[in-house]
Write a structure and sequence with these properties.
Pfam families: Inhibitor_I9. One of its GO terms (molecular function) is endopeptidase inhibitor activity. The chain is built from 4 helices and 6 strands. The protein is an alpha+beta fold. The chain has a 4-stranded antiparallel beta sheet with strand order 4-5-3-6.
Length: about 120
């Protein structure tokens, strides 16, 4: 079993990892947590499907995508059949997207099953 170092109540760091990040041990523990897990915060954000209105021009769809990025969203897949895209987005920021004049619908992304 590898040796570990207890960095905080919420985090046990393998000693092999500490050798690569020793310079961060001088900082408060919450900074260590932020550095080690900063990439997972985006991954854990909920994913949504954004559908633009049918009469939205390509420029208006681009405007919606820009608004999404400005609000902290990360666009995943852009659909060709519908005027829309998938986005990972913080729950609090979804309301601003739903009220955008060129957006028809914003719904949580998920797996659909049939019986």
């Amino acid at each position: 079993m590898p040796r570990t170092f207890k960095a905080s109540r919420c985090l046990t760091v393998p000693t092999s990892l500490l050798h690569h990040h020793q310079q961060h041990l001088i900082q408060p523990t919450h900074h260590i947590c932020q550095r080690l897990f900063s990439k997972t915060t985006t991954v854990n954000m909920p994913s949504y499907i954004v559908t633009c209105k049918e009469d939205a021009s390509p420029e208006q769809v681009e405007e919606v995508k820009k608004h999404t990025k400005d609000q902290g969203g990360k666009i995943g897949h852009e659909y060709s059949i519908i005027k829309g895209f998938s986005v990972t987005f913080d729950n609090d920021a979804v309301t601003t997207l739903e009220s955008h004049p060129h957006v028809k619908n914003v719904e949580a992304d998920g797996v659909m099953k049939t019986q």
